[in-house]
Amino acid sequence: MICPSAVTAGASLAPEPSSPALFSETRSVTCCGASSSAVNRGRMPSIPRFYPVLPGSDSFPPRVEDSEQAKELARPRPGLASLRAINSPTILLLMHPARLARWTLVAVAATWGAHAPAQGWLTKPPEPGGNPSTQEKVWLGQALFWDEQLSSSQSVACGSCHMPEAGGSDPRSFRPESVAPGFDGLFGTTDDVRGSIGLVRTAMDGRFDPSAEFGFHPQVTGRKAGTAINALLNTVLFWDGRAEFSYRNPVTGQVILPTWAALESQAVEPVTNSIEMAKMGRSWSEVETALSARRALALSPQVPTALAQWVAGRDYAALFDEAFGSPGVDVDRIAMALAAYQRSLFADQTPLDAFMNGNSAALNAQQQRGLGLFQGKGRCVDCHSFPQTGRQQFHYTGVRPVHEDLGRGAITGNPADHGKMLTPGLRNIALRAPYFHNGGAPHLRAVIDFYDRGGDFGHPNKSAQITPIGFTPAEKDDLEAFLREALTDPRVPAAAGPFARPQLRSEDPGFHARYGVATPNAQGFAPQLVVDDPFRLGGAARLGIAGGPPAARSWIAVDLQPDAAGRAFRGVRLHLAGTPSRQIFGPQALGPAGHATAFLPVPSAASLLGLRIYLQAFVEDALGPAGLTATAALSTPILSAE
Questions:
Q1: 525 and 609: one domain?
Q2: Distances (CA, A) of 640 to 378, 530, 535, 606
Q3: pLDDT, tens digit, for every residue of 258-293?
């Protein structure tokens, strides 16, 4: 792409308005013309389910309360034995940890923290018998979780959607580009969803393949990302509960871990999901082969010291060998390592925890009033039970009409489950805006207002608890203070302790930075430069050109210096400096739908590492100025080899 000696033959990019030829010299490029295809809107894919048929049950899977995980939960273990009743009692409902959906009614006082038991408030559940945590396994899982190399494009990590600073959820959900069309398939309507940004839709052969909704822009998930923090407390995961208590190998369907394995079940889904992290048709054998040879966290600009010392520049094959005691990188081990790391993300140091463990000053007067509302008038504790502040149950609360997202009902096939979503835990809730499965509530006050009015939509499946409450403005202030301040573990927003994390390359504002302006044709249409992947030494940089006339010729120009202001060049605005190092790739014909994917060779010369390159594409267009249109320009660094 760029000559290591910085002297490469190429076309002059100086203004030449009278030149009869577009470029005096060109270079060849590997190119694939891609045809447009319609795809399903951002719905969760249909996947095979494996449910036990219990005596007396019908063909539907069992309710969570009646299933094997409930039986396991019913096994006696230490828990909340009692809380003392002292003066000025208020009623507090607590879910006994030895029973799912069983309740213990306890009378306590507004200043009950000093009398709470020191043990049994919030404890970790058991681990799967076949996946005991070790420090090496946790480190391996942490590396995998924060490594963008796990995705097909090497630009999305698990952590991209699960930042501790956002309470384990996705801080990008507020961005305009994080909006997905809802049930109606249209942007800008009331059923839009604030989800998580994934990949530009990509075909099996690596070509960019535009989606019906997002075109050549990154796709967005159809639901708001849940939190990875304290996910270990759940016996099922995802809003619809499709990540089950037992972990099955996603290729064979064989049960690998029969109990306490919701985290393992969850971990394998995004890696092959064509919206989140994968090209279409990505197989686990592809993932395993590619991952084995890659140096762990090679793209990360900064890695926590302990993790960096353990990784020590090694490839994943070596790390898996150490973590599991034998060679081999496979899907089950990937799932187990990711789950082991997520089990370390245990947030149990909130002010509420301190209060319950004896520090009566941990909650101020307003927060204590909010706690009283949470457990009393607001009825919040009916579903968000202590100490987890969540329950393993599904509810329809009237956020949106049932038909827009069937939720649990899409998994079970039971009409009684239509619209129901898994009740989330509320720890670190202040960090996790926007709220609800559709990201429809921008802040906590909007959530409180929603429940105060009894939800927005009705349905026979709507939970009986969702009825108007009648909070006063002062009560809303108190409840919000409790939610915002009493439930946040300070280590989480600080990304400290177990929540410390590597930095993602995609967090760098200079990674794939756009600059300059595009030059449109007479109808106002301008071509688009499509990029998703990092440019790595010795690799092939994947670039797309979209929005041109069918079968039109196109060129991609590359330089080591930009021209931010731009200058006139054959009717378009040129944003490259035209240094002796510039190169031009093309011509290449766009496909019948007016787009193509090119794979530009990146030299392996170490002298190029860290250099920033600048790119711009040009397309022949009879309606363009002087028969030419241009994209805006792109700036990106050259990174280390795989």
A1: yes
A2: 54, 22, 9, 8
A3: 999 999 999 999 999 999 999 999 999 999 999 999
